[in-house]
């Protein structure tokens, strides 16, 4: 297990809390953000655990539904099943503030390109997306147009446009400056969406159709220019995995690969140009207990991010019932396209949600508690 001691966040009000772990020192000196991911990927250790201290006596911790970092990598945000948003200061390694959304509920919280603004999906009252200012917890705008629960939100990499998918079988394109959607697509189960790194292409994943569709952002009302057949590209995966259980859709930052996450026994690494299967990323212990996007059993929380690319696009990280799994996309898969993890980052807690910081070699995982991970300089 880790030689770096793990720091547990002691309950304290944000205004008086003194961080016991100086992440600024670690990020800014010993392991600068320019370190190659390949040099540190095997040495990540659970470093700081954040536990909620503002719960009623006997109340279990809520489930963390999503994790997001701001563009500069200085803040980490979670949306949680108790209708709150929690924000953490990454560089100082401390809890920052809590934002309440008791009236409307909250999930899929995303920073805008300005870290003082966030957008998130409602879970109560209606299916609007809400634009919130974090300084005073005031709403700037409501984006109304969906008539079913929102399942995915993706912010354009270079502008204030964003895309949302919904159980009402629509995909909407929005701009932060106006409450009306600028375009709408009608598709069957468009549960997930993602932008390619150029911002010129976006993808929509439809599990019921077993397909990932590619659209030209400049010709959004035209038919997709590419349709990837996941059933054909599933490799050794069970046929069921080609039509259900999808958790994540993400382009690598080099634009070469699409990651289609699955709550089953592996994730799909797809060629972003021709839709062929590059590798089936096998999870030796299976997936987490969370449901996939669009699934519901009345109790279990969804997984809105159980796997992700590293910023260099080379590695894929995934949560599991315990530990974090790492695959090297440059490794050669077996004859049946199966790729085994090259590293297992040990932690006995379930990692149902995971996100890699866009600017620093640092990652966060969560189930009912949030964990910050850093490379161990002594590893």
From TrEMBL:
Keywords, alphabetical: Nucleus, Repeat, WD repeat
UniProt superkingdom: Eukaryota
Matching InterPro entries: Swd2/WDR82, WD40/YVTN_repeat-like_dom_sf, WD40_repeat_dom_sf, WD40_rpt
One of the record's GO cellular component terms: Set1C/COMPASS complex
WD repeats: 143-184
SMART domains: WD40
Translocase in keyword set: no
An example Gene Ontology biological process: RNA metabolic process
Subcellular location: Nucleus
GO MF: chromatin binding
Pfam families: WD40
UniProt-listed Gene3D superfamilies: YVTN repeat-like/Quinoprotein amine dehydrogenase
Family membership: Belongs to the WD repeat SWD2 family.
Protein name: WD40-repeat-containing domain protein
Lineage of the species this protein comes from: Eukaryota, Fungi, Dikarya, Ascomycota, Pezizomycotina
């Amino acid at each position: 297990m880790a030689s770096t001691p793990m720091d547990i966040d002691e309950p304290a009000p944000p205004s008086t809390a003194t961080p016991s772990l100086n992440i600024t020192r670690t990020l800014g000196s010993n392991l600068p953000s320019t370190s190659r991911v390949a040099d540190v990927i095997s040495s990540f250790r659970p470093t700081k655990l954040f536990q909620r201290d503002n719960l009623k006596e006997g109340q279990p911790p809520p489930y963390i539904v999503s994790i997001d970092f701001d563009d500069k990598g200085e803040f980490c945000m979670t949306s949680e099943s108790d209708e709150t948003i929690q924000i953490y200061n990454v560089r100082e390694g401390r809890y920052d503030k809590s934002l309440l959304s008791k009236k409307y509920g909250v999930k899929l919280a995303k920073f805008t390109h300005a870290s003082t603004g966030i957008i998130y999906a409602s879970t109560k009252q209606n299916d609007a997306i809400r634009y919130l200012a974090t300084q005073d917890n005031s709403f700037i705008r409501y984006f109304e147009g969906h008539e079913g629960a929102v399942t995915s939100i993706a912010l354009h990499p270079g502008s204030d446009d964003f895309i949302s998918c919904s159980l009402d079988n629509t995909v909407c394109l929005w701009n932060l400056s106006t409450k009306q959607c600028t375009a709408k697509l009608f598709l069957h189960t468009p549960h997930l969406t993602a932008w390619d790194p150029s911002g010129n292409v976006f993808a929509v994943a439809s599990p019921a159709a077993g397909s990932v569709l590619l659209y030209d952002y400049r010709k959004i009302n035209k038919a997709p220019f590419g349709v990837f057949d996941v059933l054909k590209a599933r490799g050794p995966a069970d046929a069921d995995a080609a039509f259900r259980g999808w958790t994540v859709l993400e382009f690598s930052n080099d634009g070469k690969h699409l990651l289609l996450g699955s709550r089953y026994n592996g994730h799909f690494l797809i060629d972003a140009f021709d839709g062929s299967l590059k590798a089936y990323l096998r999870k030796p212990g299976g997936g987490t207990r969370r449901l996939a996007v669009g699934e519901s059993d009345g109790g279990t929380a969804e997984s809105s991010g159980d796997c992700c690319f590293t910023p260099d696009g080379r590695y894929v990280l995934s949560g599991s019932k315990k530990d974090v799994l790492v695959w090297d996309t440059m490794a050669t898969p077996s004859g049946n396209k199966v790729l085994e993890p090259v590293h297992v980052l040990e932690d006995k807690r379930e990692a149902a949600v995971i996100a890699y910081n866009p600017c620093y070699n640092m990652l966060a995982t969560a189930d009912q508690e949030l964990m910050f991970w850093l490379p161990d300089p002594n590893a």
